[in-house]
Amino acid sequence: MRILGIIPARYASTRFPGKPLVMIDGKTMIQRVYEQAMKCDRLSNVVIATDNEAIFNHVGLFNGKALMTGSSHRSGTERCYEAVEILRNNGDVYDYVINIQGDEPFIDPEQIRQLADCFADRETLLATLIKKITHHGEISDPNVVKVTIDKNGSALLFSRSPIPYTREKDLESWLSVTTYYKHVGIYGYQSMVLGDLVNLPETPLERAESLEQLRWLEHGFRMQTQITEFESVSIDIPSDLLKITNRI
Q1: Could you tell me the mean pLDDT of each successive run of 10 residues in the chain, 248 residues long?
Q2: What's the alpha-carbon Rg for the chain, to the nearest Å?
Q3: Is the model's pTM score more than 0.90?
Q4: What is each CA distance from 183 to 4, 17, 65, 94, 133, in whole angstroms?
Q5: Closest by alpha carbon to 221, among 85, 128, 95, 112?
Q6: How far apart are alpha carbons 29 and 117 in whole angstroms?
């Protein structure tokens, strides 16, 4: 089973332009993500998919692998699909793809391994990680995406709202009577399904919540989840760099 790790790296971030090239204790963010991904023994290869020449050239400086992709992609999934097609056209074919966030410089390789292991079940087409919520403030935080799962671990729904709703209990006590999970934003796909995903039309739930994965669920795709104890810190805006000072 060949698994490809792809790190989408877009330069023109609205809230943090040039984010992949920001320096973190002597290394750029994209180099740190790449080096962490390379530590995962489940990955047959790791490439950075970018739309920017400066990022592409920088990757070569630390002997990483990069592909130039289009600038019009609306999501990391679309960029991953183009990267897979470029490699496939060159005879480099993979069974599965792990979409690794390019703004998590200290992602734990174990997270990637846990996700990759979901594909030991050949019926799994899509997979992602979830983590048990332990602080009640996260339940009502719209920036924390909640997820409910069925008895087999397949995702039923993702939402920025509290799900499930625990009736007749105060919010502060919900965690004592109900298990809540949050989404950890790393995705795995069977490579052949990527073409289907990027051609799906937008759906009402996706537009309402602004969550791409809801499009897949609404179109009937099953997404397997894996519970993890790991959670990376993502860098969305410059001030988020303060979150990782204790890791440097």
Answers
A1: 95 78 92 97 97 96 96 90 96 97 92 96 96 94 95 97 91 90 95 95 96 97 96 71 62
A2: 18
A3: yes
A4: 22, 25, 29, 26, 10
A5: 128
A6: 26
Q: Where are the domains of the chain?
A: 1-107+232-248
CA proximity to 57, closest of 9, 89, 102, 99: 9
Helices (H), the chain: 29-38, 53-61, 76-89, 109-117, 174-177, 194-198, 204-209, 212-218
Distances (CA, A) of 178 to 134, 166, 206: 11, 7, 26
Distances (CA, A) of 158 to 174, 207, 221, 240: 18, 13, 14, 24
Q: Torsion angle of alpha carbons 176, 233, 35, 237, nearest 10°?
A: 160
State the residue for tokens 């996706």: 206
The fold for domain 1-107+232-248 equals Spore Coat Polysaccharide Biosynthesis Protein SpsA; Chain A (3.90.550)
As a residue count, the chain comes to 248
| DSSP H or E run through 128 | strand 126-132
